[in-house]
UniProtKB/TrEMBL annotation:
Coiled-coil ranges per UniProt: none
Record carries keyword Acyltransferase: no
Name of protein: TetR/AcrR family transcriptional regulator
InterPro entries, per the entry: Homeodomain-like_sf (IPR009057), HTH-type_Tx_Regulator (IPR050624), HTH_TetR (IPR001647)
Keywords: DNA-binding, Repressor
UniProt keyword annotation of Repressor present: yes
Taxonomic superkingdom: Bacteria
Segments forming domain HTH tetR-type: 1-60
DNA-binding residues: 23-42
SUPFAM superfamilies: Homeodomain-like
Gene3D superfamilies xref list: Homeodomain-like (1.10.10.60), Tetracycline Repressor, domain 2 (1.10.357.10)
Molecular function terms, GO-annotated: DNA binding
């Protein structure tokens, strides 16, 4: 609870002043706690910033990944855009900070973390494109992926920074139309498979078996609800020694997916087991 309080209060200051201009002293005064209490929760301001990025980006990534995997084709693109802009609007203070700070920061850990989540989002978008259009966009899928990322970034700036009224339904419908036009009527690719390999940043190792096991053990200790706890234990056993069918694994993941402490581990396990 204290960590969450610090994150919430720090976010208020970061939104007004930015990362660099906000000191630990200001954060502790805004929280009404001592510096000692701050350092029991976070080793540094940089660690706090990374925790905020993780908190927001994990929620966003797991939400759009679930939509892409489970929504019917007819609604998929609309639901993807709706969830994207709803999340940006719901967390507008932090979304503004991320957009501003990415162009100004020299913090290497911040940059690496943002590249990591950016790659995850790119993979989710590519998965959606393949579900929607298949072989039809084989040559242009990477260009289309960057166009979708451009829509997400540019249109979110309109209501985050310029106070343009946000009509989520109209915006989502408009971008569905634009995306379909691009997918079906563009034939000259710029970004090839070879080029995408060149520009890819190395992924950090989150998602390895060892790291997932470490997170699982932590969550098993934290969770008190019996269904979620038992599901985590069975998933841990499956990770160490696979014996369960894909259907059972999928059911166990569904048991934990909506628990606020399990969204990220559910996402990591889903990708690891490929279900």
């Amino acid at each position: 609870m204290k960590k969450q309080l610090i994150m919430d209060k720090a976010l208020e200051l970061f939104a007004k002043q930015g990362f660099e201009a906000t000191s630990v002293q200001q954060i502790t005064e805004h929280c009404g706690i001592s510096k000692g209490a701050f350092y029991l929760s976070f080793k540094s301001k940089d660690e706090l910033i990374i925790a905020l990025i993780d908190h927001f980006m994990m929620q966003f990534t797991t939400e759009i990944d679930y939509i892409v995997r489970n929504t019917e084709i007819e609604k998929l693109l609309y639901d993807f855009y709706y969830a994207t802009f709803h999340s940006f609007h719901q967390h507008s203070d932090f979304a503004k900070i991320l957009m501003k700070e990415q162009s100004q920061t020299f913090n290497e850990e911040f940059i690496v973390k943002m590249h990591y989540f950016d790659r995850l989002i790119e993979n989710i978008i590519l998965s959606m494109i393949e579900r929607l259009y298949g072989e039809e966009v084989k040559q242009t899928k990477y260009d289309l992926m960057y166009c979708i990322k451009g829509f997400m970034n540019t249109y979110s700036q309109l209501f985050l920074f310029y106070n343009v009224p946000l009509d989520l339904n109209l915006l989502s419908e408009s971008l569905v139309e634009k995306t379909n036009l691009l997918a079906r009527h563009t034939h000259v690719p710029f970004i090839s498979e070879d080029l995408i390999q060149v520009i890819k940043q190395p992924m950090c190792e989150e998602g390895s078996k060892e790291q997932i096991l470490e997170i699982l053990e932590q969550k098993i200790e934290e969770i008190e609800e019996p269904i979620e706890k038992e599901s985590l234990i069975l998933l841990k056993q499956q990770l160490r020694e696979p014996t369960l069918s894909p259907a059972i694994v999928k059911g166990l993941l569904e048991n934990i997916r909506n628990h606020p402490l399990c969204k990220w581990i559910s996402y990591l396990l889903q990708n690891y087991f490929e279900v």
